[in-house]
UniProtKB/TrEMBL annotation:
Membrane protein topology class: Multi-pass membrane protein
UniProt-listed InterPro entries: ABC_transp_perm/SBD, MetI-like, MetI-like_sf
Keyword DNA repair included in the entry's annotation: no
Keywords (A to Z) from UniProt: Membrane, Transmembrane, Transmembrane helix, Transport
One cellular-component annotation, GO: plasma membrane
Subcellular location(s) per record: Cell membrane
Coiled-coil portions: none
Record protein name field: Osmoprotectant transport system permease protein
Domain called ABC transmembrane type-1: residue spans: 176-371
Any one GO BP annotation for this protein: glycine betaine transport
Transmembrane helix found in the keyword field: yes
Gene3D superfamilies per the UniProt record, alphabetical: MetI-like
Regions crossing the membrane: 9-28, 48-67, 74-96, 108-126, 138-159, 179-200, 221-239, 245-267, 299-319, 325-345, 352-371
Length: 388
């Protein structure tokens, strides 16, 4: 390989060329369910627009092959990504037959491969830039604003996924709220239970082994199986304990999904609490004891602040895990974005599947970036609390 070539750029450039010339950029379907006919990037856009965009993608691919400054690569990949997204909207508008309300235009495998390769290039460049936590958050806000502007402009209004959203906008936001409630609420309850359990487990060695082993066993149970196992006991509680049904406890629905997510969340919380407390410098505790602090005062004023980065890491693990797993809650009536995923699978409507899957991926992605930045903030020099 020539010295002037970028190793990752060779692969990304090849993927861009394959997506541009060998795969369908859009798929035109007679309705939302039936299979459609693929059209390449050049065929999908009217007049010379397709040829011009294909030529632009060739230029992007060639530029990625060459060793360029990171900021230049960032600008090139961003321009290519925006061009592909805007071209998708134009191709969808051009591909819809006139006065046909049943026809649908979906992104083809070529678009998804372009999206993947250019996004991966952006992630690679951002990682090489070693941006500060604040810069990463600013970049996230800018990206969110640009994406929001694209959707708000209506450029993508003719894409099949957007049409599915337009037909279900009220249900979409209701299920999105329920999904967020499941993920965030279960994380909060897991911390209310797991934080004290982690502190006690750190203090009592035999309890630590028992607690971590039990929680490890819970993690090995498949999520759908655990949801099913909780149906019977929660159904019994709803039927035999006065007031339980009135507060929402039942054998199916949100309750078993919520409980299952809490159980899955306990291991990261307890394990990270124990690990964080074990890493507290002995000198800090000795100084606190010498200053006359009680065990509770040391825990609150010394150990918890020094354990904070470990607790933030636990929040990151739990939240991303719960955002993904809450999708399965729809199988037992728990709601969330999984409602659209499983409806789409049942109807063989992949655009409906994407309506549920894409926001879930986006939520996980945003949560990962924000919490990674917060973890880095907490570990920055001068952010730790010192015993005095």
């Amino acid at each position: 390989m020539l010295k002037g070539l970028e190793k990752t750029g060779v692969l990304m450039g090849a993927l861009i060329l394959v997506a541009t010339f060998a795969l369908p950029f859009i798929v035109v379907k007679p309705n939302r369910i039936l299979q459609g006919q693929g059209r390449s990037l050049i065929e999908a856009l009217p007049s010379v627009s397709g040829i011009a965009l294909a030529a632009a993608m060739v230029i992007v691919a060639v530029c990625l092959l060459i060793r360029l400054p990171p900021l230049a690569r960032l600008a090139i990949a961003t321009a290519g990504l925006l061009a592909a997204i805007l071209a998708l909207g134009g191709a969808a508008h051009a591909g819809l037959p006139p006065s046909n309300t049943y026809a649908r235009v979906s992104p083809g495998s070529g678009f998804w491969l372009l999206l993947f390769s250019l996004s991966l290039t952006l992630v690679d460049v951002i990682a090489r830039l070693r941006l500060s936590p604040a810069a990463r958050l600013v970049l996230l806000v800018i990206a969110a604003a640009v994406i929001g502007g694209i959707f708000g402009s209506g450029i993508l209004a003719d894409i099949s996924v957007i049409k599915e959203y337009a037909n279900r906008s009220d249900a979409f936001w209701a299920e999105m709220s329920r999904h967020a409630m499941l993920a965030l609420g279960s994380m909060l309850v897991a911390f209310l239970i797991g934080l004290p359990l982690g502190v006690i487990s750190h203090r009592i060695s035999w309890l630590r082994a028992a607690a971590l082993n039990t929680l490890n066993i819970l993690q090995t149970i498949p999520s759908i199986a655990l949801f099913g196992l909780l149906i019977l006991p929660l159904g019994w509680v709803a039927a035999h304990i006065p007031g339980a049904a009135a507060i929402g406890i039942s054998g199916i629905g949100t309750a078993p999904a919520f409980v299952a997510l809490v159980l899955y969340s306990l291991l990261p919380v307890v394990a990270n609490t124990v690990a964080g407390l074990e890493n507290v410098p002995r000198e800090a505790n000795d100084a606190a004891r010498g200053a006359g602090m009680t065990d509770l005062q040391r825990l609150v004023s010394i150990e918890f602040p020094l354990t904070f980065p470990s607790l933030l890491a636990a929040i990151r693990i739990v939240l991303i895990q719960n955002i993904g797993m809450a999708t399965i809650a729809a199988l037992i009536g728990g709601g969330g974005m999984g409602v659209f995923v499983f409806q789409g699978l049942g109807q063989s409507a992949m655009d409906l599947v994407l309506l549920g899957a894409l926001p879930t991926v986006a939520m996980s992605f945003v949560a990962a970036i924000v919490l990674d930045a917060l973890v880095d903030f907490s570990r920055a020099p001068g952010s730790e609390v010192r015993a005095t």
